[in-house]
Amino acid sequence: MKKILIIHTGGTISMKEDEKTGAVKPDEKNPLHDTIPSLKTLADMHAEELFHLPSPHITPKEMLILRNTIEEKIKKEHFQGVVITHGTDTLEETAYFLDLTIQEDVPIVVTGAMRSSNEIGADGLYNLISSVKVASSDEAHGKGVLVVLNDEIHTAKNVTKTHTSNIATFQSPQYGPIGIVTKRGVFFHHSPTKRVTYPIRQLSKNVVLLKAYAGMDDMIFHAIQTLPLDGLVIEALGQGNLPPKAAKGVKSLLEKKIPVILVSRCFNGIVQDIYGYEGGGKQLKEMGVIFSNGLNGQKARIKLLVALEMTNDYEKLQEMFIDE
């Protein structure tokens, strides 16, 4: 059997619902600890609790600790696969950060749950079992960090949370899952074409994420310039357009050598420099705005945090966001 490491970080998968109030919150003891013996038939399991945090409490600091822990454990203890349990609210960001930064080539799977451990129809243990199966699969090698919930296997790059409460919340818009998990085994029907990783050792930059809206002006852009700002990601309208006054705000940031990354607030499609009117994509591209090749806002922010640890050169940053 494969030697698999399970790292618990918290989230709904490790919480309980209060029978009186209905409040879901962390318990003194992670209920997943008692389930590990039942997984011994699947793999040679080793589990540890790195954090016990709701996922809105997870920051890039915890993501970096998690990355360092995984790499150290693989090198020193020769694990052949890793499963991470995580809250679902920021799961996709942690998964994508790990995908960008982990250098080791063993299957790494991130999973969670939409229902706490003592609710009727709790999905946590089932998702954990599915994830161990995927982490133990030979075919999972070379596909980057994977996200497994609800019988589906998604890439960290494309998956996103699409529903506040449905157990089928994790979807990969435009692309779909790359595989499925069944009672009989793990089956992949697609494979990512490439993966680029960055060997960073720290996260020291401050990157802000803004969402465009009708009538957006330059006020917020001038306000954030008073912050210690290293970069900005904007979820733009449509194919990559902004209201005219907002475009002027972007220009003021670029003049101060603050990189600006553009994604779309649409969950399908990519941004392109198509429109030539004031605030349109062509004008933004000519200003020096960097167009991302299909990432959503929260993942583009994670990538810019990582990229800025490597370089602040405009041309190199542009290459990094095109090469996705």
TrEMBL record:
Query: Which family does the UniProt entry place this protein in?
Result: Belongs to the asparaginase 1 family.
> Where on this chain does substrate bind?
55, 88-89
- Drop me one GO molecular function for this one: asparaginase activity
Sorted alphabetically, the keyword list is: Hydrolase
Boundaries of every Asparaginase/glutaminase C-terminal domain copy: 206-321
Q: Give any single GO term for biological process.
A: asparagine metabolic process
Q: What is this protein called?
A: asparaginase
Instruction: List the catalytic residues.
Output: 12, 88
Query: Could you tell me the EC number(s) of this protein?
Result: 3.5.1.1
Can you name the source organism?
Answer: [Anoxybacillus] calidus
Report domain L-asparaginase N-terminal positions: 3-192
Catalyzed reactions: L-asparagine + H2O = L-aspartate + NH4(+)
Give one Pfam family: Asparaginase_C
Origin superkingdom: Bacteria
Stored PANTHER family = 60 KDA LYSOPHOSPHOLIPASE, L-ASPARAGINASE
The main enzyme category here is hydrolase
